[in-house]
Design brief:
This protein is an alpha+beta fold. It has 3 domains: 16-54 and 420-692, 3-Layer(aba) Sandwich (Rossmann fold), CATH 3.40.50.1820; 61-141, no CATH class; 323-419. Strands 32-33-35-34-36-37-38-39 form an 8-stranded mixed beta sheet, with helices on both faces. Strands 5, 6, 7, 8 and 9 form a 5-stranded antiparallel beta sheet that branches. Strands 1-2-3-4 form a 4-stranded antiparallel beta sheet. A hairpin with a 4-residue loop joins strand 24 (326-333) and strand 25 (338-344). The radius of gyration is 25 Å and the shape is globular.
């Protein structure tokens, strides 16, 4: 149960009772609202479209993405026959064929039936074997309800069974790493005082095989009001080491290296991201960093020898410097080279750097305009394939393709996703809207090639705008079938628009910082500017314009609902933050203070309250038609903010307000393809019917 009554404000909130997540009265309210929403939306036509979306999610022709460990390529797979999924592996020769032969490792459906628990797959952590030996042990991660809390169980890859008497960490929000064949570094819920205010591990203990969590020796700890404690073990031969991270908040941290029985802090700015690869220390500062007389720009990437740095060296090789249109999104090491994934005006660019040649740069010719292409190493520890890389290429109208390449050689297609809708009918365009402060904000428009610019097209605007997360081009059969191919009575298909507003990472950390705390409104002004631009260009009109967002994107569209209701005809608001007065008291909300501000500080509540949709609701306002949806088992944002928003809107007499809560599924809103199909179909059905006047 999550029920808090210690807030100094809003104690007169008449809907606090809905914060009792599993309480009988709140769940009765949820079931009643679900029945109303399903009664309105679930028709035979809806079920046909839902089946079409489920066909996409269950398609056996989609790319089975793999991770290489030793001689095998591992994949987790869900389809119609395997609702909860199967974990399996194959060889490279088989994987590269048209019909791979998979070895079944674990059937989650069968496991759930045998144990009477609806397990949801959360991944596998591999123990690095001794050189030349095969991989034999993993920790399998399973959630009982699709939430973030999960159980870790030791699994034997030879016996294809859980290890009798092996490691078994009970369900919690844990962070675990192998420290050897008989040792784990475990951050989990050890009891009172062991979790942070943000609901993540505060302490990490070293657990020996045969020992108990209660007796495990504490290895690292952080303050209770910090975000999380984490210890990572690097098992690379010649570079074996433990690294500890004190995550102070989402964007600041202290990183330590274990030396001579103590923790040695790596002296970089708190807001810098760092990683270690063999002899190298890599640093990406989020704000300008002046050191040894040199100023390194925010969003740049710096490399130096780790031992030299620890000895006092501060002369970095600057391997990437951002400019007004280009930002670094991620990096990955092959054995001998550094791969940089960049965005240039939200289109991908990939650079290959060679440290042996003074960080010489080569552009990888694999990135068409208005597409997203990501490169990452196949297995930097493999003697033969250490300089191989994967490429994933995708576009709004280009089904995803998986390539494999070798540094200095070519890359070739390995697998391709099928087409799920008639892409040839549509075209992708990039436009720029001008926000209130004059900033040019990009967005992608996917529309029929014969689009008539008369304001008469049903249009769906999607966005996120937070946590430096970039919204990039991607193929989606779900959007294709659920929105683009649906047509009005006069034959107009839907238009889909993806916004690249501030708060995201499309232009690096400065784009993100521009919408933090008191500047949060810039993200919402950007989104509103795109809505106005779509109307101004004749793509659509307010009555035919809908918007959708999830999580932080739910907060985004919640602000569209309350601050810009005149711009939209319908709003679909998923797993959202909405009550920004109490968000830090609910689920993992405390961990997001660095993004939004602390409502318990009066000076910060003064600006937080201006983007708290729950508090911005007013009587007598003509709000757009609204669907608010969530999941009971979401232990990240939680369902209560969605519940309270819907209840308050109904209490105010707002018009078309609909609510739906999946009784399982975690923060994703769904724990299997069937639930995901229902979630997508319900949102699309609501939006289409609300905008076209049939709801």
């Amino acid at each position: 149960m999550t029920l808090h009554t210690d807030s100094p404000a809003m104690t007169d909130d008449p809907f606090l009772w809905l914060e009792d997540i599993y309480g009988e009265r709140p769940l009765d309210w949820v079931r009643a609202e679900n029945a109303l929403t399903e009664g309105a939306l679930v028709t035979p036509d809806f079920e046909t479209r839902e089946r079409g979306i489920l066909e996409v999610l269950d398609s056996t022709d989609r790319i089975p993405m793999v991770g290489k460990h030793g001689d095998h390529y591992y994949n987790f797979w869900r389809d119609a026959e395997h609702r909860q999924g199967i974990w399996r592996r194959t060889t490279w020769e088989s994987y590269a064929s048209d019909a791979p032969a998979w070895e079944l490792l674990l059937d989650v459906d069968a496991l759930s039936a045998a144990e009477g628990m609806e397990w949801v797959w959360g991944g596998a952590l591999f123990l690095r074997p001794a050189d030349g030996e095969p991989h034999t042990r993993v920790l399998v991660v399973l959630s009982p309800d699709g939430g973030d809390a999960a159980r870790y169980r030791e699994f034997d890859l030879g016996d294809l069974a859980f290890v009798d008497g092996g490691f078994d960490i009970p369900t919690a929000k844990s962070r675990i790493t192998w420290a050897g064949p008989d040792t784990l570094h475990v951050g989990t819920d050890f009891g009172p005082g062991s979790m942070t205010t943000s609901s993540y591990p505060r302490t990490v203990r070293t657990l020996q095989r045969g020992g108990t969590l209660a007796d495990a020796e504490e290895y690292f700890d952080v303050d209770e009001d910090h975000l999380m404690a984490l210890v990572l073990h690097d098992s690379t031969p010649g570079f074996v080491r433990d690294v500890a991270v004190d995550s102070i908040d989402f964007y600041t941290r202290h990183t330590y290296l274990r030396r001579d029985g103590a923790w040695l802090m790596i002296e970089v700015p708190e807001d810098a991201s760092i990683s270690l690869h063999r002899e190298w220390l890599i640093v990406r500062p989020r704000t300008d960093w002046t050191v040894a007389g040199t100023t390194h720009a925010a969003g740049s990437l710096l490399v130096v020898g780790l031992e030299a740095f620890l000895a006092g060296e501060r002369s970095f090789a600057t391997v990437f410097t951002p400019d007004a249109s280009t930002s670094l999104q991620s990096w990955s090491w092959t054995r001998d080279h550094l791969l940089l994934n960049l965005l240039r005006d939200v289109s991908s660019e990939i650079r290959i750097l060679d440290p042996a040649q003074g960080w010489a740069v080569e552009l990888l010719d694999a990135c068409p305009p208005l597409h997203a292409v990501d490169a990452y190493a196949v297995d930097d520890e493999d003697d033969d394939a250490g300089n191989d890389y994967w490429l994933i290429a995708t576009g709004f109208l280009t089904p995803s393709t998986l390539y494999r390449g070798t540094i200095g050689g070519d890359h070739t297609a390995v697998k391709a996703s099928p087409s799920y809708f008639d892409e040839d009918r549509f075209a992708v365009e990039q436009h720029f809207a001008v926000s209130r402060d004059g900033t040019r904000v990009p967005y992608f428009q996917i529309a029929a090639k014969n689009l008539v610019l008369d304001g008469g097209n049903p249009t769906l605007l999607s966005g996120y705008g937070g946590f430096e997360h970039s919204m990039t081009p991607a193929y989606s059969g779900v959007i294709g079938r659920g929105w683009l191919e649906r047509t009005t009575d006069d034959g107009r298909p839907g238009v889909y628009v993806l916004a690249n507003i501030r708060g995201g990472g499309e232009y690096g950390p400065a784009w993100h910082r521009a919408a933090l705390h008191a500047e949060r409104h810039r993200a919402y002004e950007d989104f509103a500017a795109i809505a106005e631009d779509l109307v101004g260009r004749g793509v659509t009109s307010p009555a035919l314009l809908g918007c959708t967002g999830r999580s932080n994107g739910g907060l985004l569209v919640g602000n569209m609902l309350t601050t810009y209701p005149h711009l939209f005809g319908a709003v679909s608001c998923g797993v959202p933050l909405l009550d920004m007065r109490r968000y830090t008291k609910l689920s993992a909300g405390y961990s997001w203070i660095a993004e939004y501000g602390d409502p318990d500080k009066p000076e910060e509540w003064e600006y937080v309250r201006t983007f708290s949709p729950y508090h911005l609701l007013r009587d007598g306002v003509d709000y757009p038609k609204t669907l608010i949806w969530t999941a009971t088992s979401d232990d990240r944002v939680g369902p209560v903010q969605a519940r309270k928003m819907a209840a308050r809107m109904k209490d105010l007499g707002a018009g078309d307000v609909w609510f739906h809560e999946a009784l399982e599924g975690g923060h994703a809103g769904a724990s299997d393809n069937r639930q995901a199909a229902r979630m997508h179909a319900m949102s699309f059905e609501f939006l289409w019917r609300a905008l076209t006047g049939s709801l």
